[in-house]
Amino acid sequence: MTNQKHQFDASPVVVEDLAPALRLSLRVKPAHRATLGQALGLDLPARVGACKVAGGTEALCLGPDEWLITAPEGTDLATPARAVYATAPHSLVDISDREITLRLSGPAVLDLLAACCPRNVAAMPVGSAARTVFDSATVILWRDGPTDFRMDIWRSFVPHVRSLLSQVQGEIAAGL
Fold it and tell me: Which InterPro entries match (predicted)?
């Protein structure tokens, strides 16, 4: 993913927009998970919060029969999914326009997230992700590194989340 316009640099935390990506909501019974995963060229993880990456495509297990799949724009995953629908019935919905993704990084990123997120993000293993809340907004939080996160936010909540992030960034910067 590449960076896009909005970027606030109030080190020690950087918040930046990432380029749009293909986002798919997948629902499939566990009995058909392997068949559909093979068709998509992905290992669909079975453990909630686990992520698997194949090429530029990433699959996050959100529930026993629910995954979020992200891939570069223009990736065609619908065609191989349709090809196995008769043997692996599923629901695959393009939700790309529903959300935006922010990258949150820097040495104080855990403080930034702790200000509005009840989850103990410090305990999240690198390479995992979770559906959680940031204040009152439901988000998907991906931990890409010790001080590097992505946050998927529904577009309607973006102004609220940006406002909180900016406020907390200011508080962190003033406290140093």
Answer: SoxG, TrmE/GcvT-like
Q: CA–CA separation, 63 vs 80, rounded Å?
A: 23
Residue 83, domain extent: 22-97
Q: Where does the chain have alpha helices with state H? A: 33-40, 78-83, 109-114, 158-175
For residue 13, what are the β-bridge partners?
A: 10
Dihedral angle, C-alpha 10, 14, 17, 18, nearest 10 °: 160
* Under 8 Å between Cβ of 118 and 132: yes
Give the chain's domain count.
2
What is the band of 176 on the pLDDT scale with cuts at 50, 70, 90? low
Q: pLDDT tens digits for 23-62?
A: 999 999 999 999 999 999 999 999 999 999 998 999 999 9
Supply the pTM of this predicted model. Answer: 0.87
pLDDT digits (tens, 9 = 90+) for 89-129: 999 999 999 999 999 999 999 999 999 999 999 999 999 99
Relative to beta strand 13-18, strand 57-63 is unpaired
10 and 47 assigned to the same domain: no
